[in-house]
Amino acid sequence: MPKNLSIIIVEKDRDRADQIVEGLTASGAHDITVIPDESGLARRIAALDPDIVLIDMANPSRDALEELALASGPMERPVAMFVDQSDGALTKAAIEAGVSAYVVNGLQQERLIPILDAAITRFHMVSRMRTELEATRRALEERKSIDRAKGILMKARGISEDEAYALLRRAAMDQGRKLPEVAEALVSTAGLLS
Amino acid sequence: MTMRVPVGYIPLVDAAPLIIARELGFDEEEGLQLDLYRAPSWSALRDYLALGHVEAAHLLAPLPIATALGLGGSAQPLEVLSVLSLNGNVIGLSPAVAGQLRRSGHRFGFDDATAAGQALLGLDQPLRVGIPFPFSMHAELLFYWLDAIGLPQDRRPSIHTVPPPLMAEAMAKGEIDAFCVGEPWGTMSVENGVGELLLPGQAIWQSAPEKVLATRHGWADRHPDIAGRLIRSLWRAGRWLGQAQNMTTCAEILSRPEHLGVSPDLIDRALSGRLVISARGEERQVPRFVDFFEGAATFPWQSQAAWIGVQLARRHGGDPVKAAERAKSVFRSDLHRQYLAHVTRGLPGASSKLEGALSHPSALGSENGRLILPPDSFFDGRIFDLEQIA
């Protein structure tokens, strides 16, 4: 029985990190450490001397990990981005899911693959959740602007809510813009007049 | 028919050739449409390129060379079709360290790397310096400078990798006391009152190749038509950027939220070479602070590549002579010359030159005409000669 792999996940968002840890745990027994804070990242990782580091591809702090890949860098065992490894399909899937992994040289492919598979699945899941959350937040904000814009029009022109909405809709069509944009513009300029 | 080419960049002033080529249609003039992708980090951008998510990328000049020497996290060989910009970095200090230098009599003239270096020698503690990436002109200039002024080993700064847009934040949090970064991110530190500027990069080397257009090795040879159109559209954008009267427009375009998302007056400082070096509003004029066109700036000199290769080999271990040879093959001077032959006569016939030999603008015989090369001295007067790498 080979020893447990030690894995570091660099992730600020607690919920995302939990999701990823859960997925990896299900793929086998590992020692998993989450680093939520990115200052002094390369040195902290080096101190833990992990087999694998997983980090969101969009995380700008990823560049700090490049120091790990230097012969004279802070980690004694040389590391490589997994994109060097031969499995092109796996690499592509990882990049699409937005996960980048730094792996100690010489780690057996059959031990690496289930972990990357699990990480890819979880990264997909959390990015979908993030997109949904973002869409919901935007929808709420848009509805708020539309409501406020309607209120301003009703007050300024003494019209009903339905008429105010129709007016906004017509303005949006005439200007070839989206309804929330027109509402937002009205709300922000109305602020100047009052 | 318009061909679409996905191209990646990092939000910096020196991404201007790509952004301007797209926004002002220099790409369409060549029958191309550049699809621009803003990348979150240098390593992510290099991987997008290595894996074919983009066909070309705005990269740090030393990055493709480091890859060729087996350094760093990717093994996909890359090559350089054009230089996108010369110079454009700034070195800055925390207000506390800057204050120490002022008290010791340094005048912050912003033009003398020897004087600034001497002032640093007087500090009693080693600095923590932020740079954007281990393989960057920032790292090369910094190490060259500190070596040349003779900073003793025990006072060497510790180097921390910090992505450019996060540099001001790292200064504010006190994680670093100094930085070397591309604009507008040094200016951003000044603006936020967390940094003062000490030197522009070209006070160390007057013509340092800063960013390049990189593609996967062999791509340009397999797609000669697209590669030629790409080189020409960026050259045209560079020619536009070489005209001072276009800088206000350029700052406005770069400032858009989808590109740099930074106020145009901060971008304008780098483009016009009028830098504000402290929160007290002191201004310094820097001719050729960042150069996109003059003196065949776009030409990828193999001697520039060799200089980078030798520096990397000396620092990370490796044979300098072999490193120079490998580095030279990364810079495709041949393709650059070939694909621009019909649009300009101002390109050199040679692919290498002495680096650091010109202290004044000097005329050089070019393919069919006359080319004025800008000064390219190192601050310590050394000359890099390919024939004499020890």
Describe the structure.
The complex is a heterodimer of chains A (194) and B (390). Chain A contains seven helices and five strands; from the N terminus they run E-H-E-H-E-H-E-H-E-H-H-H. Chain A is α/β, with parallel strands linked by helices. Chain A has two domains: 5-132, D-Maltodextrin-Binding Protein, domain 2; 136-193, Winged helix-like DNA-binding domain superfamily/Winged helix DNA-binding domain (Arc Repressor Mutant, subunit A, Orthogonal Bundle), CATH 1.10.10.10. In chain A, strand 1 (5-10), helix 1 and strand 2 (30-35) form a beta-alpha-beta unit. The model of chain A has no long low-confidence stretch (mean pLDDT 81). Chain B has 390 residues and is α/β, with parallel strands linked by helices. Chain B has 16 helices and 15 strands. In chain B, the strands form four sheets. Chain B has a six-stranded mixed beta sheet, with helices on both faces. Chain B has a five-stranded mixed beta sheet with strand order 7-6-8-5-9, with helices on both faces. Chain B has a two-stranded antiparallel ribbon with strand order 11-12. In chain B, helix 1 crosses helix 11 and helix 12 packs across helix 13. The longest helix of chain B has 18 residues, at 224-241. Chain A binds chain B through residues 39-40, 42, 57-67, 69-72, 79-81, 83-84, 91-92, 95, 100, 102, and chain B through 40-44, 47-48, 50-51, 53, 71-76, 132-135, 160-163, 165-166, 170, 173, 175, 315-317.
Core attributes:
heterodimer, A: 194 residues, alpha/beta, D-Maltodextrin-Binding Protein, domain 2, Arc Repressor Mutant, subunit A, 5-stranded mixed sheet, 7 helices, elongated, B: 390 residues, 2 domains, 6-stranded mixed sheet, 37% helix, globular
